[in-house]
């Protein structure tokens, strides 16, 4: 079975541009989370979506948005890019809420590395 | 979520047991201890989790103190492929996927 797949793997943008990152969860997983990892730091939580609804949001500005589609794939959008948005963006999937044991056993993708110039 | 404290780096000889400590003195009764690791340029990988009993799986063992204020991840026979950053995280187990990663412990396995 395929793991969590993310695209693109690498991309370069300039300040002020917009970016869309995509994520396909493991088959059967209904929950998708997004994390930002700046160089030298641990991943920081951005969003969680379950059954197409936002279930959690981290401390990120409104320039960051996301959505989940009926097939449980997800997109992360970032508008008006800043130099500080340069990071590895990680998507993780899990069976989702309602699965009592191991709800936080997330499977991460390899990430999309965004460079903002 | 409770905060965790880990040493920034550790070395371990190949073939020996690697013991990674974590302090979580403010952990609450419904919070689990999770361990993830991140090998260079990859996404984090789940290792193990537990509430209060010691746990073991094919990758590692997790020892949680009786007062639950600290834990130790044990890799029984470390290999070079275990070189990674290891994150200790405490979180509730139900309906909450906001994992708070710290800076972790950079474990280097020495040949």
Tell me about this structure.
The complex is a heterodimer of chains A (117) and B (111). Chain A is mainly beta and 117 residues long. Chain A is built from no helices and 11 strands. In chain A, the strands form 2 sheets. In chain A, strands 2, 4, 5, 6, 9, 10 and 11 form a 7-stranded mixed beta sheet that branches. Chain A has a 4-stranded antiparallel beta sheet with strand order 1-3-8-7, with no helix packed on it. In chain A, strand 4 and strand 5 form a beta hairpin. The radius of gyration of chain A is 14 Å and the shape is globular. Chain B is mainly β and 111 residues long. Chain B has no helices and 9 strands. Classes of the chains: A mainly beta (117), B mainly beta (111). Chains A and B meet through strand 4, strand 5, strand 9 and strand 10 of A and strand 4 and strand 8 of B.
Q: Would you report the number of β strands of chain A?
A: 11
What do the pLDDT scores of chain B average to?
Answer: 92
Structural class determined from secondary elements of chain B: mainly beta
Mean pLDDT of chain A: 92
> Runs of chain A with pLDDT <50, length 5+?
none
Strand fraction of chain B equals: over 45%
Sketch the major β-sheet of chain B.
5 strands, mixed
Oligomer: heterodimer
Number of helices of chain B: 0
Strand content of chain A: over 45%
* Shape by Cα distribution of chain B: globular
Roughly how many Å is the radius of gyration of chain A?
14 Å
| SS content category of chain A | mainly beta
Helix content of chain B: under 10%
Distance between the termini of chain A: 37 Å
List low-confidence stretches of chain B: none
Helix content of chain A: under 10%
